[in-house]
Each structure stands twice: as C-alpha cells, then as structure tokens.
Amino acid sequence: MTAQIPEILHYQRRKHDLHTEPLASYLEQTGRALPSSGGLCSALWRDYVGVWRVVRKRLYLQALYLGMEGQPLDLAPLFPDHTPDRFGRIFANWYTGELRSPLGALTDYEHIGWGGTYERYLVMQVVDGVVAHVAEVGADSMQRGLAWDLDKG
C-alpha cells in the first residue's frame, strides 16, 4: 500500500498535515457516501482530502476536495442536518477521538499508512467536536499510547 496523502488541519494560525480521518466516522454513522471522483489513486484510497479548522476549541470541516484533481465538493448535501457557520464550515459534533498531526522530521519512512514516524506529534483529544485536551508528544509516547484525563480538559 502507498503512503496516504494527509488531511489538512488549521490550528493556531498554522497549517498542519492531519493523520486522522474525522469524516470517516460521520460517513459510517449516517450511511452517507461521497460521490466518486471517477479515478482512484493508491496515495488517496479514501478519494478525498478534508480541510479542518479548530476555532475556539471547536473542530470544523471547512472544505472537501475529491480525488487527486482536488475537485471542491458542496458540503450542504452531505450535511443536511447541519447548519454551516457564517464561513460555510460544518461543526464536527459527530467526531470523538484523537487528531494527530506530525511535527518535526520524518524519522522512519514506511510506504504504508501515513508514511512513517515523525519526531513529535501534535495530538488533540476531541469529544463531540470539542477539543478537550492538546499535547505535543514524542513518537515514543505515540507508540505506547496516550492516557487522557478528560476530567481535567
């Protein structure tokens, strides 16, 4: 399998690669499907790239682009039960889990998944679309797993 093209996360005025797919749980929960771009690429098996933004601790889907061509997708038909904010973003209240963004140098390349291991990661614990905890951790912590204390938020 080929290393995958990451999602995009805007956080604290910086653009990050995102090695998580928050949209996947929405598609699974609702049974909705994205239209096909018409051509699959082994570097983009999910056939889309999501652009995400954290604003005031809330995770938003800002845009979706289909396939390698990057064809913009209208979010309204995919989210009929969600009202976009004034910028057209969709609050990702369906998502609970970790968001992981690599930081620093690539230390171990793998031609699979997100492409290997990085020095550090920006990790966010998200609950119902709200960022509960943020940490910058080393790769060794990622491999051991993180124990989040959500009560301390």
Number of helices: 2
Helix content: under 10%
What structural category arises from helix and sheet content?
Answer: mainly beta
Element-level helix/strand string: EEHEEEEEEEH
Protein model, in words:
Residues 147-153 have low confidence and may be disordered. This protein is 10% helix and 42% strand. The strands form two sheets. Strands 1, 2, 3, 4, 5 and 6 form a six-stranded mixed β-sheet that branches. It is mostly beta strands and 153 residues long. It has helices at residues 22-30, 139-144, and strands spanning 7-11, 14-18, 48-55, 58-66, 71-72, 90-91, 97-109, 116-127, 130-138. The chain starts with 6 loop residues before the first strand and ends in a 9-residue tail after the last helix. The longest helix is centred in the first third of the chain and has 9 residues, at 22-30. The radius of gyration is 16 Å and the shape is globular.
